[in-house]
Design brief:
The protein is α/β, with parallel strands linked by helices and 366 residues long. Helices cover 34% and strands 26% of the residues. The protein has helices at 28-39, 54-64, 73-77, 94-103, 118-131, 145-155, 189-205, 301-313, 323-342, 355-365, and strands spanning 19-24, 44-50, 68-70, 84-87, 107-111, 135-138, 162-172, 211-218, 225-234, 237-244, 246-257, 261-264, 276-281, 291-296. Strand 4, helix 4 (94-103) and strand 5 (107-111) form a beta-alpha-beta unit. Helix 7 crosses helix 9 (323-342).
Length: 366
């Protein structure tokens, strides 16, 4: 979806008016990935960055050529020139500062996971209605062309009927000083990366899981979940995934249908400077003679995300991952945590926003 809103040959459509963005914090993901990607977006312009350490904000602004640096989040929210906020703060600060940003009149793109629980995420529904601003969750993978192509293949029947999804995502990091190692900050592998196979499975099936089960292993000293195996039962199939925070780095995503399977080689951390490949296998033999390789051009999925979200602010298209979708994802995460404790199948808690119908509507729009 790179270049959303780009005129076709012969059109006289004007260039978009970029959305003026402020960055709430100078986290690594913002400084190293998201801000540079936003600066390459035709639809976005980063005009300010804030940190509780003013010098850190100034350093980031200087390094990235951002016009204004603030020494507090409040100063940034008070800037009348800022239209939208990107919130990459630690997980436990996502909802409080997203609420404050929306109430200050800013649109909000909040880093995943949107909240620590579904109940916490639901607080944003009333805020969105009251503030009249767009609020979304930053699942950049949902805007990458390899995923849009994969879903197109599934929806057009290339693999027959979708029945099963199998995914793995792992890395190794064990640092007591890292915020992802702190339970009270929303650390742990399920919230950090387990949310990815969940959102993609829900998106591909176009429905919410009926029930889920999991096995979780926790770090004996840090207390965070470091290894999870999960199974999600959907109305028309199943999804399973494993995620580890103290394992060898590896990631894969497999989609199985009645007629073929699809394998995504680099599903979650697609590089901005190299093309991606997805493999379609009709299963005619076990040595790969029936495999078709689909090459996707190199894109920056954070730029794609910025394009889509900023375009939605300007009235073009929809927020890629809206609040109802985000709440559905958090409800599954809640249920997986419960299942690990009860050792039973758990149902994602129902809520009043109609997640299944909303997810299907979003699936049809995008």
């Amino acid at each position: 979806m790179r270049g959303i809103g780009r005129p076709v040959p012969g059109d006289r459509e004007p260039e978009p008016v970029p959305v003026r963005w402020g960055i709430l914090g100078a986290a690594d993901i913002a400084v190293k990935k998201v801000i540079p990607a936003m600066q390459r977006s035709r639809w976005s312009r980063v005009v300010a960055v804030a940190s509780r350490d003013r010098q850190k904000a100034r350093d980031a602004a200087t390094a990235l050529d951002i016009p204004r640096a603030y020494g507090s989040y409040e100063e940034l929210l008070a800037d009348p020139d800022v239209e939208a906020i990107y919130n990459p703060l630690p997980n436990h600060l996502h909802v409080p500062w997203s609420i404050r940003a929306a109430e200050a009149g800013k649109h909000v793109l909040c880093e995943k996971p949107l909240a620590l629980t579904a109940a916490q995420a639901r607080e944003l529904i009333a805020v969105r209605a009251r503030a009249g601003r767009q609020i979304g969750e930053a699942f950049m993978v949902r805007t990458h062309p390899q995923w849009l192509k994969l879903r197109e293949l599934v929806r057009t029947g290339r693999i027959g009927e979708l029945r099963q999804i199998v995914a793995h995502f792992s890395y190794f990091r064990r640092d007591p000083n890292d915020i992802r190692s702190r339970v009270e900050y929303g650390g742990g592998v399920l919230l950090d990366i387990g949310c990815y196979p969940i959102t993609l499975s829900r998106w591909l099936f176009g429905a919410e899981p009926l029930e889920v089960t999991s096995v979780i292993e926790r770090d004996p000293e840090l207390g965070i979940d470091r290894l999870i195996s999960a199974l999600l039962r959907f109305p028309t199939g199943q999804a399973s995934f494993t995620c580890g925070g103290q394992l060898v780095p590896y990631q894969r995503f497999h989609v199985f249908g009645t007629a073929a399977r699809i394998e995504v080689i680099v599903p979650f951390n697609a590089p901005p400077d190299r093309g991606c490949r997805i493999l379609v296998d009709d299963g005619r033999d076990l040595f790969g003679d029936g495999v078709e390789t689909i090459e996707l051009a190199a894109v920056d999925q954070y730029t794609e995300q910025a394009d889509r979200f900023s375009a939605a602010i300007r009235g073009r298209g929809n927020v890629p991952v809206g609040l109802e979708d985000a709440i559905g994802n958090m409800a599954v995460i809640d249920a997986l945590f419960r299942s690990a404790e009860t050792r039973r199948w758990e149902r994602p808690v129902d809520d009043p926003v109609g997640r299944n119908s909303q997810l299907q509507r979003d699936s049809n729009k995008h």
